[in-house]
Amino acid sequence: MAEGDAGSDQRQNEEIEAMAAIYGEEWCVIDDCAKIFCIRISDDIDDPKWTLCLQVMLPNEYPGTAPPIYQLNAPWLKGQERADLSNSLEEIYIQNIGESILYLWVEKIRDVLIQKSQMTEPDPDVKKKTEEEYVECEDDLVLACQPENQVKTLDFDVSENRTEIEELPPIDHGIPITDRRSTFQAHLAPVVCPKQVKMVLAKLYENKKIASATHNIYAYRIYCEDKQTFLQDCEDDGETAAGGRLLHLMEILNVRNVMVVVSRWYGGILLGPDRFKHINNCARNILVEKNYTSSPEESSKTLGKNKKVRKDKKRSEH
């Protein structure tokens, strides 16, 4: 496998893991080897009026130089409405060439469904047909166009008081997840400078239980308003590639000025890839709980502005 292909494959795997963590049962694997996936999107998870199934196939060149191949499946989606939605997805791709865009696509579709639900009520037959189409997605896929990159920038306000960055920020702790005697718990703190990252880590390690964890994986993203870029970094703490996967989740969710630490207490049973799922789920849950996730519009306009700083990672099997 060429070096470029290996890099694309790793980025795809990280995005797939993040999407599975974010959407849970809404995310469905059609063909893992062929990288074909389907996600069921609705205006309201508890009481859906409008539902659409997005099927995507990830070519080897994605996300570097090619878009996902996609199919929109919904019995009510026809004509101009289908064309408008397809154009919106392709515009998102144009604005973010080279970046992971599946999260942006899903949330754009969800926004369209929410707007539609506020305007019209579906026919009862439409709901039934949508359920059937989710089980049997069509085979023909649409290739998004690839015009020149037109990345937009957006100014953001940093609400934190820069005169107080020397203070230890508050630290929140998430609900633990336990699987086969291994326990995972996320910790979150708002940060606006690398010094605060060190302060948070030092404070966490004062807790004997956290200090005794097998791994304390962390990642942070700090938005630099003057340069309109992100200062970000991650640490595996011996759990190979876990920090990079955690940072990728935070990039997709477009969180800013925050760090997440996930502690894992190893229980003696190897979990395989499930351990990454639990790490991402812990992180996502606390980010959502503390309202750090942003709108897809903001994500779309800032994904291309990241400044990445990564450390060498220690390696371990568990």
Automatic annotation (TrEMBL):
<dbReference type="InterPro" id="IPR036956">
    <property type="entry name" value="Impact_N_sf"/>
</dbReference>
<dbReference type="Pfam" id="PF01205">
    <property type="entry name" value="Impact_N"/>
</dbReference>
<keyword id="KW-0346">Stress response</keyword>
<dbReference type="Pfam" id="PF05773">
    <property type="entry name" value="RWD"/>
</dbReference>
<protein>
    <recommendedName>
        <fullName>Protein IMPACT</fullName>
    </recommendedName>
</protein>
<dbReference type="GO" id="GO:0005737">
    <property type="term" value="C:cytoplasm"/>
</dbReference>
<keyword id="KW-0810">Translation regulation</keyword>
<dbReference type="InterPro" id="IPR023582">
    <property type="entry name" value="Impact"/>
</dbReference>
<dbReference type="InterPro" id="IPR016135">
    <property type="entry name" value="UBQ-conjugating_enzyme/RWD"/>
</dbReference>
<comment type="similarity">
    <text>Belongs to the IMPACT family.</text>
</comment>
<dbReference type="GO" id="GO:0006446">
    <property type="term" value="P:regulation of translational initiation"/>
</dbReference>
<dbReference type="InterPro" id="IPR020569">
    <property type="entry name" value="UPF0029_Impact_CS"/>
</dbReference>
<keyword id="KW-0221">Differentiation</keyword>
<dbReference type="InterPro" id="IPR001498">
    <property type="entry name" value="Impact_N"/>
</dbReference>
<feature type="compositionally biased region" description="Polar residues">
    <location>
        <begin position="292"/>
        <end position="303"/>
    </location>
</feature>
<keyword id="KW-0963">Cytoplasm</keyword>
<dbReference type="InterPro" id="IPR006575">
    <property type="entry name" value="RWD_dom"/>
</dbReference>
<dbReference type="GO" id="GO:0007399">
    <property type="term" value="P:nervous system development"/>
</dbReference>
<comment type="subunit">
    <text>Interacts with GCN1; prevents the interaction of GCN1 with EIF2AK4/GCN2 and inhibits EIF2AK4/GCN2 kinase activity. Interaction with RPL39; this interaction occurs in a GCN1-independent manner. Associates with ribosomes; this interaction occurs in a GCN1-independent manner. Associates with actin; this interaction occurs in a GCN1-independent manner.</text>
</comment>
<feature type="domain" description="RWD">
    <location>
        <begin position="14"/>
        <end position="116"/>
    </location>
</feature>
<keyword id="KW-0524">Neurogenesis</keyword>
<feature type="region of interest" description="Disordered">
    <location>
        <begin position="292"/>
        <end position="318"/>
    </location>
</feature>
<keyword id="KW-0678">Repressor</keyword>
<feature type="compositionally biased region" description="Basic residues">
    <location>
        <begin position="304"/>
        <end position="318"/>
    </location>
</feature>
<comment type="function">
    <text>Translational regulator that ensures constant high levels of translation upon a variety of stress conditions, such as amino acid starvation, UV-C irradiation, proteasome inhibitor treatment and glucose deprivation. Plays a role as a negative regulator of the EIF2AK4/GCN2 kinase activity; impairs GCN1-mediated EIF2AK4/GCN2 activation, and hence EIF2AK4/GCN2-mediated eIF-2-alpha phosphorylation and subsequent down-regulation of protein synthesis.</text>
</comment>
<dbReference type="GO" id="GO:0140469">
    <property type="term" value="P:GCN2-mediated signaling"/>
</dbReference>
<dbReference type="InterPro" id="IPR020568">
    <property type="entry name" value="Ribosomal_Su5_D2-typ_SF"/>
</dbReference>
<dbReference type="GO" id="GO:0030154">
    <property type="term" value="P:cell differentiation"/>
</dbReference>
